[in-house]
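seq/struct pair 1
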Amino acid sequence: MAIYKHFVNRDALLQTATAAEYKRIASYFAQANARKSVKGLRGMLGYFDYACDHPHLFRYMFSSNRKDSFTYPADLKAGKSPTLNILHTVVARLMEEGALKKDDVFETSLTIWAHAHGLITLYLNGRIKLSRNSFRNLYMRSLNRLLEGIRE
């Protein structure tokens, strides 16, 4: 009960914890983006690694119905999601460079995120029975196939 001296209620505690987790996820993206040996959307390896390292937090952050969750289109188009903002920036840059065909940046980012999230959720829920390394390879091959489909 001592924790509630610092927080009004459970929801306030969880909102504070969630805000801190977005910073941790951003650090995972940054580490993944630094990997020069990985082609495609390297940062999405950060999403994968975070999910595998912290599966319960991942489920809470991205698969639970919370009052403070960011929603599409209002919150995500307004740039309120620290994680989708990173993907959005990369997608916009790839479109400007001609690596992806010009399209709606928000919808393209949402498509990539949904694809990655779906695969990770299937894996975490035991629907894909592979080692972490084998799944990571499948995950990146699948994302690269998706990117090939939306290239110029």
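seq/struct pair 2
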Amino acid sequence: MLRIVAIANQKGGVGKTTTSVNIAASMHATQHKTLLVDIDPQGNATVGSGIDKNDLSFSAFDVLMDDSVNIQDAIIKNVAGGYDLIPGNSDLTGAEVGMLDRKEREARLKTAFEPIIEDYEYIFIDCPPSLNMLTINALVVAHGLMIPTQCEYYALEGLSALLETAKKIKHVLNPGLEIDGVLRTMFDSRNNLAKEVSGQLVAHFGEKVYRTVIPRNVRLAEAPSHGLPALVYDRSSAGALAYLALAGEILRGKKA
């Protein structure tokens, strides 16, 4: 059965795109048919998947804005991490304004997905670092929300706006939306503040915090510049192994 997961946090620099690329690669590695959808105008998930974001025949922008574009035409099969990809680039900045006068603007992505819901087991959506119409479209179509967050000061405060938005969307537009989990990223176990905030997240969110913790890892940071997920760049690295562990946790349906 298909599971659609929006990966979002309105705060930038928390490992959102790194998580999107690497969890897609890890799910593919565990023999699950996976699609990654890049709706962030920065296009970093596209680049991190080994695709030139400036040389696209079709992109997520076309899927959202052009009713004549078939979503299958926008899918790039078997990118560097083995998963399929709907790429994104700066064209998406125009979608935010362009969708304002469109019918059912909050459900454009949901409608676009209808022809492919039987084709995949997991669809991950890399959202922009803001609570705009693109992120709302992802939350309307998603079954679950994954929230990567660094264990740093203001981490709890930074989650509040996203959680409030998700709550409203669940109430009004998508009753099936659930918080899949909060993912601790770029974690340095030598940092006392990081350990303190990690404890606060577990105390506040309980079982909604993934047991898996993504460490601060050089190979994980290097991989995007090579257009590769960490699993392909260095399978034995701590970062790659952590995302494989996260994939296993998701498949088992267990949190901390």
